[in-house]
Amino acid sequence: DAMVIQNPRYQVTQFGKPVTLSCSQTLNHNVMYWYQQKSSQAPKLLFHYYDKDFNNEADTPDNFQSRRPNTSFCFLDIRSPGLGDAAMYLCATSRDAGLIETQYFGPGTRLLVL
Amino acid sequence: DQQVKQNSPSLSVQEGRISILNCDYTNSMFDYFLWYKKYPAEGPTFLISISSIKDKNEDGRFTVFLNKSAKHLSLHIVPSQPGDSAVYFCAARDRGGSQGNLIFGKGTKLSVKP
What is the total count of domains within chain B? Predict the structure, then answer.
């Protein structure tokens, strides 16, 4: 009965080689988020989709892009991964984007850049 | 500069005793605070929240206290159980910020010893 699913759980890519991380949800939530969490750091929001509306955080590098082809799926594309992009990437969903909405997280994809 | 700070990276408590996890914040625009719990290889799961108009919220063994004047909140777990061993993240929402944006602390790893 997994609600937020992330594939793969571990991803290894080469420096500069584009990589795509996947997230799907069975909750039918309107909002999907992508967070980056580096080792011993706090998770940091990269961007989120409210339905089809894309909202980028001001300090998210251009190297990071996202697609949401339908309600259930959201992808994180890293166009040219650098060594500094190695991190855990967490996908989350919420029913709405209000102040008190709970976010539900997936297990994360750990990205390694060689 | 970190807006949400969890200054204790780890905490060890005996089973049956109280666990107190602390969190400080700097942004007076934060209006809503949440605690998430994270087990290894899983995503963070929502635990308890509190609005800035309250100073206490209780849910079973978990109580969150908010001291707005000190910009400090704490999570109390009583009694602590070995299954509570996890990383606990404090998070905050800015009423004037990006919709849905959670600002996380770095987390505190709680170990409850039998």
Answer: 1
In a domain, A11, yes or no: yes
Contact B36 A105 (CB under 8 A): yes
CB-CB under 8 Å, B98 with A55: yes
pLDDT classification of B38: cutoffs 50, 70, 90: very high
Task: Give the distance from residue A32's alpha carbon to the nearest chain B alpha carbon, in angstroms.
Answer: 10
Q: Which chain A residues touch B43 with a CB distance below 8 Å?
A: 4, 6, 90, 92, 105-108
Please report which confidence band the pLDDT of residue A48 belongs to, taking 50, 70 and 90 as the band edges. Answer: very high
Burial of residue A89 (number of CB atoms within 10 Å: 0-12, 13-18, 19+): buried
Q: What is the pLDDT of residues B61-73, one digit of tens each?
A: 999 999 999 999 9
The answer to whether residue A110 is domain-embedded is no
For the domain that residue B60 is a member of, what is the CATH number?
A: 2.60.40.10
- What residues make up the domain containing A43? 4-97
Domain count, chain A: 1
A31: domain CATH number?
A: 2.60.40.10
